[in-house]
Structures are given as structure tokens and as C-alpha cells.
């Protein structure tokens, strides 16, 4: 067998039909602002509760950010069609890794969803739905479905400050089920650290392993630890992993979590690892290139990023489309949908003062609903006996008459169309 070699990866330009390829305005990079002035008064407090200026946000709700997981759902379609269990695990692991790729260089904070805020997405044969089911603590419930699979889970993010870095733990727990076989896979998103939040150029690293467990024979584990790879003060982008049968490493998984993932025989990777690491460090500054060990299978290559990637919150093409309201969509989506947020639209347009006003208005209205104990029961997810949030299956019937008008100006505190259905009850999420 030959030696590892650096190869180029062809990245596909994937655009949703009719989508935009740029935002209306540019943005202020976080490193151009003294974030220390914002953080200092909040030291020792619950970081999930303190408010940052709107210009420190990206024009997306956290629920929309969760929908970015749908971007590479074709990997799950491939996995569903695999007869070989090992190959199925390879593609599931590739999907799990691909879901974190949109985090590359994303230092701006998404908007905190209001309680009962929702976001839906129908794309490439998949339906996705997220709802904010709790405000304190913040919990988002998600559900996605295609002809081949379902994905469900919850995300309960926390932030903490340590020295000069922020630690973000998504507490994201996801479960994938293939419909035909009933086979299940579970995993949690990795923690990450954002460095230089007081001064200097900010960058991020993942700081924990990511384990994918299956109901079948094989499990997989990804590691983002620096094991000889060059940390170029821009964040480590390498990833290594293994597919296990019990405690035995069967296959190696390796690559660049922003660009590609490959698999090969475990013994081959072990034999070539030193040379591979050297080539990885040499290729890290070259566009769309990385080392590949002979005999490897390329499982995933990330989509091409926009030309204005650096000037548009580091959004992918997929992300750029998430806040668009296409023709006919306004009459279709729920009144709680994130696309209706006027604060995010104003931020997209570079109208920061207007965005701040709308954001403050939404937050005040939410506090009033909380005080009145109204509008606090999630509509599309419910807690089961084990305390897990499960989708109730009703959203796509599109009966929204009982939904809050969260984002419309209303002299009656955005009252529900049917207040009785949203009054306080024992199933309240807050």
C-alpha cells in the first residue's frame, strides 16, 4: 500500500430554489467589539439569562440554527439503503459530524427563542420542526422526518465563563430511528470553547468527544483533541474517530470537520498516522485540500461556502436561506414561526436600533405573559412519563387558530386567538 497524499476535495454548490446568496447588509465582527464590557457585569450570573446587545447576535433564532442539521440529510438516506451494518454506521457517523460543520467560525450568538416560538422547514424530502418548550431553563425540542427515518431530541444550552474563554455546552441529545429496521442511534453534540473573548481574535475549538451509540453491533466515537495537529490560533479543525465493536476498534474515521470525513481500516490508519498528521498540518492553509490514506472511503465532503462567507456571519448557503419568507409562506407557516421576528429582519437590514427596540418589546411581552401565567403550554411537543419531550404529530395539519401571535403588534399583549387553550395548566413547561 502507498503513502497518504494530499488531495483536493470538490465541494458542491447547493442552493435552495430561488434562495438569496447574500444578506441585505454586512455585520460587525465580534472581535471588533469589546465583549469584555458586556461580560464583566455578568460574572457569577447564569449566562443563559443575561442580555447582550442585538448587534452581537446573528440574524437567526436558535431554533433556525438547529435546522442546519437537515443540510446533509442525504447521508441518512444513504445509510437507510445500506445492507451492511458497518457501512450504515459509517454514514450515520458522517451525518453526526456534518451537523457540527456549520459552526465553523460562527462567533455571533443566535437570538434566544421566545417560549412557544417555532421553526419549520420542508426541504429535500425532510420535514423539520422545532419549538421552544421552556424559557428558564431554555429548552428546544426538535423533530425531523423523511420516508426513511425520524430524528428527535432536545437541546438545553448553557454558557459559562472561565478566564478568557466562554464554554458552551449544547446539552443536545438526539435519537435517530430508521423506519424499516427500527434500528436506533443516539448521540450528543460536543462542547466547545470560544477563546480570546476579552481581547484578540476569537476562535473556537470543540472540547469533548462525540459518541454515537447504536442498538445494533457498532458504536462510533469522535475526538477533537489536539494530538500532534497544529493549532494555528484559528481553531483546530481536525477530527479523529473510530468505529467499535464492543471495545475493539474496527475502523478509523478521520478528516477535517469543516471539509471532509473518510474511513479506513484501523491498522492502516495506525500505520500511517504520523505521516498523515504531518500532511494534515502542511495542507491546513490550502483551500479545500487534505490528506487521504490509500484505500480510504470518502464519506462526506462539505458544501461550497458563499463568496461573502467572511462578511455574512459565516453563514453557509443553506443558512442564508433560513430566514427568507418565500411566496405563499406567510399564509402557510405558524404565527409563532421565527421568520416572523421583526428584530431579526431589522438586524439583517443593518437597522440595529430598530432591531433592539423589537427585541426589547418581545421580551417585555414575554415577561407579561409569564406574570399572567398565559401562553406557557407548548403546542407541538409534550413531556412523557420519563420527562422527555416528544412530538405530538399534529403540526403539519396546520391548524394554528390556537397559536400565539408572538411577533405582531397587539394592544392586548399578543393575546392568543383562543386564550382558554393556552391558560396555565399542570403541563406548563416553565
Automatic annotation (TrEMBL):
Residues 332-371, 408-430 are annotated as: Disordered. Gene3D superfamilies: 2.40.160.120. Residues 337-371 have a biased composition (Basic and acidic residues). Keywords: Lipid transport, Lipid-binding, Transport. One of its GO terms (molecular function) is sterol binding. PROSITE patterns: OSBP. InterPro entries: OSBP_sf, Oxysterol-bd, Oxysterol-bd_CS. SUPFAM superfamilies: Oxysterol-binding protein-like. One of its GO terms (cellular component) is plasma membrane. Belongs to the OSBP family. This is Oxysterol-binding protein. It comes from Caenorhabditis briggsae. The lineage of its organism: Eukaryota, Metazoa, Ecdysozoa, Nematoda, Chromadorea.
Amino acid at each position: 500500500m502507498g503513502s497518504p497524499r494530499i488531495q483536493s476535495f470538490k465541494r458542491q454548490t447547493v442552493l435552495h430554489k430561488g434562495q438569496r446568496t447574500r444578506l441585505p447588509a454586512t455585520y460587525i465582527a465580534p472581535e471588533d467589539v469589546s465583549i469584555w464590557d458586556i461580560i464583566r457585569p455578568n460574572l457569577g450570573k447564569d449566562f443563559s439569562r443575561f442580555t447582550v446587545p442585538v448587534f452581537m447576535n446573528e440574524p437567526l433564532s436558535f431554533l433556525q440554527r438547529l435546522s442546519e442539521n437537515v443540510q446533509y440529510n442525504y447521508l441518512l438516506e444513504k445509510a437507510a439503503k445500506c445492507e451492511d451494518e458497518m457501512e450504515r454506521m459509517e454514514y450515520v457517523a458522517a451525518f453526526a459530524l456534518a451537523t457540527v460543520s456549520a459552526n465553523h467560525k460562527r462567533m455571533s450568538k443566535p437570538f434566544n427563542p421566545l417560549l412557544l416560538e417555532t421553526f419549520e422547514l420542508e426541504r429535500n424530502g425532510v420535514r423539520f420542526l422545532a419549538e421552544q418548550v421552556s424559557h428558564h431553563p431554555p429548552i428546544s425540542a426538535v423533530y425531523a422526518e423523511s420516508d426513511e427515518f425520524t430524528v428527535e431530541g432536545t437541546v438545553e444550552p448553557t454558557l459559562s465563563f472561565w478566564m478568557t474563554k466562554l464554554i458552551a455546552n449544547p446539552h443536545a441529545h438526539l435519537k435517530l430511528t430508521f423506519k424499516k429496521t427500527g434500528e436506533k442511534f443516539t448521540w450528543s453534540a460536543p462542547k466547545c470553547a470560544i477563546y480570546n473573548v476579552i481581547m484578540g481574535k476569537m476562535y473556537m475549538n470543540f472540547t469533548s468527544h462525540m459518541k454515537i451509540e447504536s442498538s445494533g453491533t457498532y458504536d462510533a466515537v469522535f475526538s477533537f483533541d489536539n494530538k500532534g495537529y497544529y493549532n494555528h490560533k484559528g481553531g483546530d479543525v481536525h477530527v479523529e474517530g473510530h468505529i467499535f465493536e464492543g471495545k475493539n476498534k474496527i475502523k478509523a474515521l478521520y478528516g477535517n470537520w469543516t471539509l471532509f470525513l473518510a474511513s479506513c481500516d484501523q491498522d492502516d490508519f495506525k500505520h500511517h498516522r504520523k505521516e498523515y498528521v504531518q500532511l494534515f498540518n502542511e495542507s491546513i492553509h490550502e483551500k479545500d485540500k487534505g490528506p487521504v490514506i490509500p484505500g480510504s472511503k470518502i464519506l462526506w465532503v462539505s458544501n461550497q461556502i458563499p463568496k461573502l462567507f467572511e462578511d455574512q456571519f459565516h453563514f453557509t448557503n443553506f443558512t442564508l436561506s433560513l430566514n427568507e419568507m418565500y411566496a405563499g409562506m406567510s399564509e402557510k407557516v405558524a404565527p409563532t414561526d421565527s421568520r416572523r421576528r421583526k428584530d431579526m429582519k431589522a438586524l439583517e437590514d443593518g437597522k440595529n436600533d430598530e432591531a433592539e427596540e423589537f427585541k426589547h418589546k418581545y421580551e417585555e411581552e414575554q415577561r407579561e405573559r409569564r406574570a399572567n401565567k398565559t401562553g406557557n403550554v407548548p403546542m407541538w411537543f409534550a413531556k412523557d412519563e420519563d420527562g422527555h419531550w416528544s412530538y405530538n404529530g399534529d403540526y403539519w395539519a396546520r391548524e394554528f387558530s390556537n397559536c400565539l401571535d408572538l411577533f405582531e403588534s397587539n394592544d392586548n399583549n399578543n393575546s392568543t386567538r383562543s386564550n382558554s387553550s393556552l391558560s396555565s395548566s399542570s403541563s406548563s413547561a416553565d
